[in-house]
Amino acid sequence: MPIHPRESDPAVPDPADPAPEGAVRPPRGDLPRSGPPAGTGPDTDEEPGPDAAGGPTPSEDQHTAELKELEDRWRRALADLDNLRKRHARELERERTSERSRTAAAFLPVLDNLELALTHAGPDPGAIVEGVRAVRDQGVSVLELLGYPRHAETGVAFDPALHEVVGVVQDPDAPPGTVVEVLRPGYGDGERQLRPAAVTVAKRE
User: Is 16 left (phi over 0), alpha (psi -120 to 50) or beta?
Assistant: First the structure.
């Protein structure tokens, strides 16, 4: 059988033929692309990771140094706060001791005068009474100087801030709600009150 030469198909371009001027040749999938793979060349924007240089990046070193500095400052602040607390406790205890000493020293003359009254009383009971009354007045004066005045008045209106009612009595000579008798004096006012006065109050009609 005779072999006829293959006729070229005008619709299919011959790869060996050069492309006409201005024409775009379609890509050929069977030919390998030349050059390095995409993304691995020297012109890519990808930076090497932290392990590429064999150590931490400069930003990590800076963060570590800042963290260490903050930790040191925090430890110093804690130490300063502890020292301040201890110093304040020592000063407070010293002030308490000094205040107790001043208060006790203020009452020493009261005890001295009470001992003198008992020593010079002798067989006269009236002298003992007068001496004890004088010592009582001196003690009241000391408390007043310390900021705790005495409250033992009768005939005044009942004040819940100064008085504590321990009894109610019927007294036609006293207006209702007034203090008739003081059973125990009170000392101090407001926030500086040692105790209220224990009183009996006239009954209200």
Answer: alpha
pLDDT in tens, 94-144: 998 888 888 878 888 887 888 887 777 667 777 778 888 888 899 899 889
Is-contact 180 202, C-beta < 8 A? yes
Which residue has 């005939």 as its token pair?
A: 155
DSSP letters along 98-114, please?
A: HHHHHHHHHHHHHHHHH
d(CA 90, CA 100): 15
27 with 15: CB under 8 angstroms? no
Amino acid code (one letter) for 157: A
Of the candidates 197, 201, 202, 203, the one whose C-alpha atom is nearest the C-alpha of residue 164 is 197
| 40 CB neighbour count, 10 Å cutoff | 8
Token pair listed for 109:
């003359």
Residue 163: CA count within 13 A, CB half-sphere: 23
pTM across the whole model: 0.52
Length of the chain: 205
Residue 163, H or E segment: strand 163-169
